[in-house]
Design goal:
The protein is mainly α. The chain is built from five helices and no strands.
Length: 127
């Protein structure tokens, strides 16, 4: 079956669910996610559906600030590189097209910005 582009909420859910299943089983980033998300995975996944639905489909179902919950995570560039590697593999295995490419660009920009901000806060000694 030929791959299609991301085009609806069902595609978003497939992307998010497949990605986070891989994340949960990853040796490097899995333990961090699993510790932080214990008992809260369904809530997190719902939030991620709305986040990506808003970004990619322009259906405005997400509101909030994505960075603050991440600012004290024990992560560095290697973690973001792995997150991005899994995200890219997941998108490429499921979809092809303009929105699939947009998802990867948006994810890369977020990974870069989150890593930059986390390093900044860490270096400032902010608690």
């Amino acid at each position: 079956m030929a791959l299609q582009d991301i085009s609806n909420i069902e595609n978003i859910k497939l992307l998010v669910n497949t990605f986070y299943e891989k994340v949960q089983n990853d040796d490097l980033i899995g333990p961090i996610f699993n510790e932080k998300m214990t008992g809260r995975w369904p809530e997190h996944l719902e939030k991620m559906y709305r986040f990506w639905q808003t970004l990619l489909l322009e259906e405005h179902t997400y509101s909030g600030s994505p960075f603050p919950p991440h600012k004290h995570l024990p992560v560095d560039q290697a973690h973001f590189d792995r997150w991005m590697e899994i995200f890219t593999e997941t998108v490429d295995s499921l979809f092809v097209g303009k929105l699939a490419e947009e998802a990867k660009v948006r994810a890369a920009n977020m990974a870069y910005m989150f890593n930059y901000k986390i390093e900044y806060f860490r270096n400032q000694g902010n608690q």
